[in-house]
């Protein structure tokens, strides 16, 4: 049994991680409350995830798992991208970020609203080694928020092939089965399972 500490304090993300990695012989520990959240100061998802994972290893001495996600919207030149959490400003709420996104896309035609979620997960070990995993989900941005499941940009993200339903209109199981984080986690599970 390997113990990993999670960098995230987001309960939705932690649940998604437990749902996939729970099948392995691993124990996933919550981030200790005395360890502060690490600022995402880097320019790429990979570097931010590594920064968070390394900070957790330094604070706990345990292997750590961190993820960083961005929403890349084609009509906005890839924004908000690595700045997705702070799109509408520092400490912006999910709703403020969604409203800013919809505001920037007013007048953008349905066929030009393509977007992509990307998640990078980094597992960092105390001996300095690390494992990186990527998951991508293609879709488009809806004109109005729909659905109550999930979090973040889920109410306005329509994944390809789901008959127009947003991620927030899918059950957690349906979302995990196709999501960027689900894909990154399953790829990671394969790598860890081989270790
Ligand atoms: P972070 O990985 O927590 O930094 O996430 C960056 C931004 O993307 C935040 O605004 C999150 O709410 C949002 N986000 C991350 N994962 C998802 C997801 O699975 N669905 C919708 N929004 C997400």
Describe the structure.
By secondary structure, the chain is α/β, with parallel strands linked by helices. 31% of the residues lie in helices and 24% in strands. Strands 1, 2, 3, 4, 5, 6 and 7 form a seven-stranded mixed beta sheet that branches. Helix 1 packs across helix 5 and helix 4 crosses helix 5. Bound molecules: inosinic acid. Inosinic acid binds next to strand 3 and helix 3.
- Which class of secondary structure composition applies to the elements? alpha/beta
Structural domain tally? 1
Nearest-integer average pLDDT: 93
Would you identify the CATH architecture?
Alpha-Beta Complex
Q: Uncertain runs with pLDDT below 50, 5 residues or more?
A: none
Question: How would a textbook summarize the main sheet?
Answer: 7 strands, mixed
Intertermini distance: 12 Å
User: N-to-C SSE series?
Assistant: EHEHEEHEEEHH
Key descriptive features of the protein:
195 residues; alpha/beta; Maf protein; 7 strands; 24% strand; binds inosinic acid
Brief sketch in words of this structure:
This protein has 195 residues and is of the alpha/beta class. The protein has helices at residues 11-21, 45-60, 94-104, 172-178, 180-194; strands at 2-6, 26-29, 64-73, 80-81, 114-124, 130-141, 157-159. It has a single domain, classed as Maf protein (Alpha-Beta Complex).
């Amino acid at each position: 049994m390997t113990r990993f500490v999670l960098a995230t304090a987001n309960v939705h993300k932690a649940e998604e991680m437990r749902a996939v990695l729970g099948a392995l012989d691993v124990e996933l520990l919550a981030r200790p409350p005395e360890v502060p959240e690490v600022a995402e100061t880097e320019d790429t998802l990979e570097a931010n995830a590594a920064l968070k994972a390394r900070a957790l290893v330094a604070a706990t001495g345990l292997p750590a798992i961190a993820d960083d996600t961005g929403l890349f919207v084609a009509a906005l030149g890839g924004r908000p991208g690595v700045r997705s959490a702070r799109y509408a400003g520092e400490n912006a709420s999910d709703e403020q970020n969604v409203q800013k996104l919809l505001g920037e896309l007013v007048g953008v035609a349905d066929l030009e609203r393509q977007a992509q979620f990307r998640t990078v997960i980094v597992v960092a070990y105390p001996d300095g080694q690390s494992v990186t995993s990527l998951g991508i989900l293609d879709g488009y941005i809806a004109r109005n928020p729909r659905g109550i499941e999930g979090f973040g940009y889920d109410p306005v993200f329509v994944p390809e092939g789901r008959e127009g339903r947003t991620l927030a209109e899918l059950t957690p199981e349906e979302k995990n089965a196709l999501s960027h984080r689900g894909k990154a986690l399953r790829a990671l599970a394969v790598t860890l399972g081989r270790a």
